[in-house]
Here is the input.
Amino acid sequence: MGADHRGFEFRASFSELDEGLGILHQSVDRLRRALGRGQDDRPLMLFETALGEIGGNVLTHGRPPGTERPIEYSLLLDGGTVVASLTDSGSPVHEHLAREMPAHDVEAGRGIAMARALVDELGYERDGDVNRWRLVKRL
Amino acid sequence: MALEVEMRQVENGITVVAPTGRLDVAGAPALKEAISEVVKTGPPRIVIDMGGVSFVDSTGLGSVISALKQIRGSQGELRLAAPNQQARVVLELTTLDRVFPYYATVEEALTGF
Here is the structure.
């Protein structure tokens, strides 16, 4: 790793699906460049895949009708560990967290199982009326 | 970038469906729509050219499963070609590589199809 690991910080808030997903991918691209890593860097690619899953869920379910609060997002590098945080205003999702990978012919329901397998830590907590997600991966 | 989908007919009535962009929760409906169009025209043989897909998520993968079910339901066949490294990781993680054996190139996918 040829770059300084300290000091990378990215923060954004967004409300729209395509815009939000675009911002998530841009943030990982910036981190990739900051670290001097290539597009094929495996730990970052696995992290980005997990972030896309949780980000997609948050953007799809985390803004119920009438919600004005946007999704809050941050991406930080702490030593050699990347930490992403997402906060949304959707319903609590505890019952989905332990979901296993579904059968091959099932079209939906793989996202959380995939994310869990791709990062070192997938954290979730209900905090008042918001959901807080945390993805941690050592690079 | 929203997913764009091009389609082209090649030899022996095979259709190559070529999405470009992210095949994710935002882009998956465009692929489903394209496959539905092809299936309407009769027993389809379809190659999905993944060469232009930069990123696949579980919903994008779901759209490929949906495509397979539609195509098999119409007595057709589906092959996947040229998935990038990230797409291959997702296929392997979900063990869907057992359901979608993929080909390195479109040309390989067309051979013997």
